Amino acid sequence: MQKILLALTIQLAAGGSALCQQPTALADYVNTLQGTNSRHELTRGNTYPTTALPFGMHTWTPQTGSNGDGWKYQYHRKSIRGFQQAHQCSSWSNDYAVFSLFPVMDGLSVTEEDRTTAFEHENETARPYYYRVKLNNDIVTEMAPTERGAHLRFSFPKGHKGNIILDGYTGLSGVKVHPAQKMVTGFVNNGRGFKRGWKSYFVIVFDTPFTGYGTWENTRGTIQEGNLQAEGKGTGVYLQFKEGATVQVKTASSYISEEQAKLNLSRESGNHKTLEQTKAVAKKIWNEHLSRIMVEGGTEEDKATFYSCFFRASLFSRKFYELDKNGKPYYFSPYDGTVHEGYMFTDTGFWDTFRAQFPLNALLHPQMHGRYMQALLKANEQCGWLPSWSFPNEQGSMIGNHAISLLADAWAKGIRTFDPSAALEAYYHEANNKGPWGPANGRDGYKEYNQSGYVPYPKYREATAKTLEYAYDDFCAYTLATAARQEKYKQGFEQKMLNYRHVYDSTTGFMRGKDEHGNWLKDFDPVEWGGPYTEGNAWHWLWSVFHDISGLKKMLGGDEAFCAKLDAVFTEPNKVKVGTYGGMIHEMTEMVMADMGQYAHGNQPIQHMVYLYNYGGQPWKTQFHVREVMKRLYNASEDGYPGDEDQGQTSSWYVLSALGFYSVCPGTNQYVLGSPLFNKITIQLENGKKFIITANGNSAENVYTHSPLLNGKPYNKTFITYQDINAGGTLSFDMKSTPDQQRKLLPEDLPYSVSR
């Protein structure tokens, strides 16, 4: 963190007051190394230094891990072996459509182990629009992004011959060298679950003539000197250049054709003669994007953390469409293997991102969000299922059927770009069948859930967590059907959305595992992980009744008992029983390290819990805990996250919370209020209006909100609606170091619950 702040201080000293005058320097607050100090045993974000444009189809990154290793870049590693085209969502999911370039000096070292070169972080610059590293052999590599490619520059030391190695990665690849055009074309086909015929076509154009070339393959490291083309597993190219050369490289890829790849390159960087031009365009794009939220006040460290998180929240879901020669969108479908007109997006797991990343996108990017809803239904048409985890096709990972959350949430917020009857029909199929790809493709245990109102354990793994998330998803279908006047579906899901009640055990005060005969599992311990729960324990999963906190309060004994149970999350010892996991997994370690009792912010199930005090009439406790989480568990360094970042979700939690609200129940139009981090926040809305949040007297000590005003009028609600924000206006608070416990809340001042 000190290094980041020092760099900002130097920039301000050298560049005057650029940060204060214009939003042009916002991108310089971003550290793309945030969260990269991750390992299998403990993740601090599980990120890599992504060089990309917002929601870009391809990204680029340095590679410290071996080909096929999900740990693409780890901060503690001391050498680099490639600069990759990348799409990876998580280290647990590996990657697809990858190839890499790497500069080698003098002798021709082609294999990834032979070419690996040491570096120091002091010689590394990592911004969204620009990555630079000077390797220990003095070769300098620079990268600037385009939407579907990158502009690179390799600078070799004087007196040393330069070689650039293209590595075809782990699957089938084909390459062709065009010496007269100073160009290489080809394709890669790596990843899993793709339709027959899928390829990622690339074109790479150099500004410097080749003095030699050939092909090679990475399974045995064999070289074919002078060979112009080859195809096979791990096939690549080597190119040789004169001594001391500085070589600029422009590349773009397409999932449709080589011709489209060339068009993508021509359109996105064809007129850029130097990397500086591409870099300047990328920086301008990022500054404009980040200026959609302008923050004032707060520390430089707070701003670095905020904009670094905002950057991460702006990478997913990725565009999977391209623009034809007439500028019309079309895409190669990862679901049916054919080309379609229109928009497609990919690379996200809804179990993570329905909670905050998509509600943030709905607020800032409603046009893109509307296109995404259309793409969900197109995916359903093309493969027979709504996606649950697209990477780039349906993987079916994790639990729940949360595409309906996205659709219902968009509809509730007035983003009505799709046919609700088609959405409900697709969800009805999803909820009453089991698909072939993973537990969340269709519904594990749907027959028992429909018949008995819960998923039995151990017949189905993670059954209690599935019951809770199915009930929430059924609520989303219910609320969409209600709003769209689809009586058939409204009636079908009206009772099922209350199925969470079937796994609540009043004798223990927790959601518990229940077998197919209706018996509670024996030897219950709320700190035991796994079994009927997903990546958590009973303390974490108790709160997953997003749509009916009022009903949960009633089961727990009313407002006081409910808030006392919330308090207990933080006062319980942070001990762990590993349960069915058989050993400590990183989520457990991260909870223990956080030292906040049983609060495990590093994983999704409990991330909304701190906002629930609003429902119990004690909003000041939300305000305190939200600021504590932001202060203690986030920063802009390589240790910046308390666990997996997860496709923008953990970052989006921070962004929304820093604004002063959070999306507890997507599928409604409400954001529940917390404590804004900055003195003044200006949200530039897509409709041209501004929503301004002011927090007078804000500081690290003054975290409690007093005297709320919406558009100058007293505002007593503990939530704000999407429509309030989207209309433009002001929300203001006075901030104090003591809580406002005299505020009287009426039932209508509390956030939405379906049973209230």
TrEMBL record:
> In what residue span(s) does the Glycosyl hydrolase family 92 N-terminal domain sit?
29-254
Pfam families linked: Glyco_hydro_92, Glyco_hydro_92N
State the UniProt keywords alphabetically.
Calcium
Q: Which cofactor does it need?
A: Ca(2+)
Listed InterPro entries: 6-hairpin_glycosidase_sf, GH-type_carb-bd, GH92_a_mannosidase_put, GH92_N, Glyco_hydro_92, PNGase
Mention one GO molecular function.
carbohydrate binding
**Biological processes per GO annotation:** carbohydrate metabolic process; glycoprotein catabolic process
GO CC list: cytosol
Kindly list any coiled-coil regions of this protein: none
Would the keyword Transmembrane helix turn up in this protein's UniProt record? no
Domain named Glycosyl hydrolase family: which ranges? 260-736
NCBIfam families associated with the record:
aman2_put
- Quaternary organization: Monomer.
Protein name as annotated: Alpha-1,2-mannosidase, putative
Write the lineage as a comma-separated list.
Bacteria, Pseudomonadati, Bacteroidota, Chitinophagia, Chitinophagales
